[in-house]
TrEMBL record:
Record InterPro entries: MFS, MFS_dom, MFS_trans_sf, MFS_Transporters, Sugar_transporter_CS
Gene3D superfamilies referenced in this protein's UniProt entry, alphabetically: MFS general substrate transporter like domains (1.20.1250.20)
Major facilitator superfamily (MFS) profile domain: residues covered: 25-408
Keyword annotations from UniProtKB, A to Z: Cell membrane, Membrane, Transmembrane, Transmembrane helix, Transport
TM ranges: 25-45, 57-80, 92-111, 117-139, 151-174, 180-201, 232-255, 261-281, 293-312, 318-336, 357-380, 386-405
Keyword match Cell membrane: yes
Location(s) in or outside the cell: Cell membrane
The keyword NAD is annotated on this UniProt entry: no
Topological type in the membrane: Multi-pass membrane protein
Pfam families (UniProt xref): MFS_1
Full protein name: MFS transporter
SUPFAM superfamilies in the record: MFS general substrate transporter (SSF103473)
Length: 420
């Protein structure tokens, strides 16, 4: 989907980990919860085509449903860090897990668009809270291993999304009740993780007394000395998340339409292949300098967009799947590199406001281009819209790459854990 998104207020303890030595399992538990949370965010992706057919939804409606998630997640990201500093990480993780289950139940019982909007809003708030509080908890649990935690989290985010999307598409295709079974299985997994969090000790050692800290939205701002680095990083992530939004909302059904394969598994496999490839590229790209990884990802994403258009025009399933893999490889490099670069250059006293500005623009990139693509697809069709969308985002990617050539290399000092 690298430093605590929270740096919107979440500050890890300076003392040693608060978790007891006999709760070493807490670290992999929180890491798994983060992966599943991102899986929850992507679970509906292969099912949007089902909703479109059953309820005669336009592409614009589908993208609006998707965008609601981004708005709710942004709100959570901007406040959850400070809230977790006041009340602790564990209460927020418990609340977020419960909210994920509630959202999944709303999906299972959905009878119309209003239910989808409600479920996505609940999940946006829940996943945003999980990412912020969970990322801060990882730093609490292993305060001297932050860089490794950030790197691992970027990988498991994408793996969680890939496994969940592919699993949801298989369950929807071959299991009973396609719009119920996938969510029910994911809900069982979340319940198991919730029981683990309930048994976990609070990891936040430096918690202030309740009521002594005023929780408020972190003010977005960017210091002048890192303005060029910020433009480079944020333009790359806006372009990457624009692609992600279209892939998670419209692309599965579009890929099936263009190739003539109506199977939900094929559409889900394309998106899962993208997410899995992104995990792989983040694992490998972590060895590169952030700037080098980001430039390679930005330029590669522009190329992958062009090849995706050609693959869809060819109507060859193997080429469409291959384009998805290439897109994921480039997306992982571009997103991970951009975020690591920004985390390396942001001044310590400005992390909250800079990351708030970063996520404000990143979520705008996730929501607005997706909705615009949906509106255009409703009017002219996605086959006519996708090449123009690809051209616009591709130019954005190339611009980010050019800005990266002018930026300076930086050695990451702070882990930045991505959102998704």
């Amino acid at each position: 989907m690298t430093a605590s998104p929270a740096r919107s207020g979440a500050v890890g303890p300076t003392a040693s980990s608060a978790a007891p030595a006999d709760q070493r399992w807490a670290y992999p538990l929180v890491m798994t919860l983060l992966a599943v949370a991102l899986g929850v965010s992507g679970a509906p992706a292969p099912l949007y085509g089902v909703y479109e057919r059953e309820w005669d939804l336009a592409p614009l409606t589908t993208t609006v449903v998707f965008a609601v998630y981004a708005v709710a997640a942004l709100g959570a990201v901007l406040v959850a860090g400070q809230v977790s500093d006041v009340v602790g990480r564990r209460p927020l993780l418990i609340g977020a897990a419960v909210a994920m289950i509630v959202g999944l139940v709303v999906f299972m019982t959905a009878q119309g668009v209003a239910s989808l909007l409600l479920a996505r809003a609940i999940h946006g708030a829940a996943v945003g809270t999980t990412v912020v509080a969970g990322s801060a908890a990882l730093l609490d649990l292993r305060p001297h291993d932050g860089t490794r935690s950030g790197h691992l989290t970027g990988i498991v985010f994408n793996l969680g999304m890939a496994v969940t999307i592919l699993g949801a598409s298989v369950l929807a295709q071959y299991g009973p009740h396609p719009t119920v079974t996938p969510y029910a299985v994911v809900a069982v997994v979340v319940v198991v993780l919730l029981l683990g969090v309930l048994a976990m000790a609070e990891p936040h050692a430096a918690r202030p007394a309740r009521g002594t800290v005023r929780v408020r939205l972190t003010r977005p701002a960017v210091p002048a000395e890192i303005a060029a680095d910020f433009r480079f990083a944020v333009l790359g992530v806006v372009a990457a998340w624009s692609v992600l939004g279209v892939y998670l909302s419209l692309f599965p059904s579009f890929a099936g339409e263009r190739t003539g394969i109506r199977s939900l598994v094929f559409g889900g496999a394309v998106v899962a292949a993208m997410a899995g490839a992104a995990a792989l590229s983040q694992a490998v790209g972590g060895r590169w300098t952030p700037r080098r990884a980001a430039i390679a990802g930005d330029v590669g994403t522009a190329v992958a967009l062009g090849l995706s258009v050609a693959a869809l025009d060819s109507r060859e399933p193997a080429l469409v799947l291959g384009a998805g893999v290439l897109m994921g490889l480039c997306f992982g490099l571009g997103f991970g590199g951009s975020l690591r670069h920004l985390g390396a250059v942001v001044p310590a006293g400005h992390r909250g406001e800079v990351m708030s500005a970063y996520y404000l623009l990143a979520y705008t990139g996730l929501a607005v281009p997706t909705v615009l693509a949906g509106a255009a697809a409703t009017t002219w069709g996605l086959a006519a819209t996708f090449p123009w969308f690809s051209l616009a985002v591709g130019l954005m990617c190339l611009t980010a790459g050019l800005l990266g050539l002018r930026a300076r290399d930086a050695v990451p000092a702070v882990p930045v854990i991505p959102e998704g």
